Amino acid sequence: MINIAITAGGTSENMDGVRKITNISTGQLGWHCLEAILDNMLQSDTEDFHVHYLLTETAARKTLNENQQKFVSFIEVTDAESVFKAVDKLTKETKIDFFIHSMAVSDFTFSYAANIYRLAEEIEALQCERGFTNDDVRFLLENPQTQHRKDEKISSDNELIIGLKPTKKVIPLIKQNNPATFLVGFKLLRNATEEKLMAAAEKLTAQNGCDMVFANEVSLIGEKNHEGILIKGNKIIDRPRGKKQIAKSIVNNMLCH
Fold first, then answer.
1. What are 46-65's pLDDT values in tens digits?
2. Could you report the per-residue pLDDT of 223-251, keeping only the tens digit for each?
3. Where are the alpha helices (DSSP H) in the chain?
4. CATH for 2-107+169-255, options being 1.10.3720.10, 3.50.50.60, 3.40.50.300, 3.40.50.10300
5. Which of 94, 120, 125, 134 has a 20 to 30 A CA-CA distance from 78?
């Protein structure tokens, strides 16, 4: 059995039950990768495979025909923490042969919101009481007493300070739990030259054991005009254009490695 995993879409980090922090990912490239895998496998009469498709609520999703549905299971996730848990569980319980990690997982999650004036008063009180060090201020900014409760809707009447904390990285889990997995990573930069894209892809590969990386620049993203470079072994092996062609290139080079 060939097990393939794909992550798609952008995570959403809850703030107060009404507002969320998210990103621009649509999940379309991940879906095109799924279609390319199904086409590749079924056209070659390969039926001994299964795709584990992890997606967010807002990720693009189309209808599969009855035959395609047999080969795909959907795992719905929401925020970065849920992605971490889902990927950890999947890669520990299943030997994943190929993993396409195209999901845009948030680097930060919501920590707190505080009224800027009340927070200033809290800092001032600390100074009047005994003075403060950098550590004192850092602790206060990480844990302000005046923050809004987690279960209350944040008021829009005053200016706010929002605290964010780093999320746990998902991509390192994949090779940690399944060292033999062929891992496709993605790197998106803004206002970056090809040289910077290459450097970022090399760093991603070194840190997480990626076997292939698709690197692109945010201004070149679109359904038809999406451009980027596919990198393997620190060399550019393709320059596909358009999400469907990018997906086909990724899948073909992955399955034929």
1. 889 999 999 999 999 999 99
2. 567 889 999 998 999 999 999 999 999 99
3. 28-43, 66-69, 80-93, 116-130, 134-142, 171-177, 194-208, 243-255
4. 3.40.50.10300
5. 94
CA distance 55 to 101: 11
What would the two tokens of residue 130 be?
């005994």
Complete DSSP assignment for 200-228: HHHHHHHHH--SEEEEEEGGG--TTT-B-
- Which residues make up the CATH 3.40.50.10300 domain(s) of the chain? 2-107+169-255
Here the tokens at position 137 are 């201020």
Q: Are 50 and 71 in contact (CB under 8 A)?
A: yes
Quote the CA–CA distance of 63 and 84 in Å, as a whole number. Answer: 27
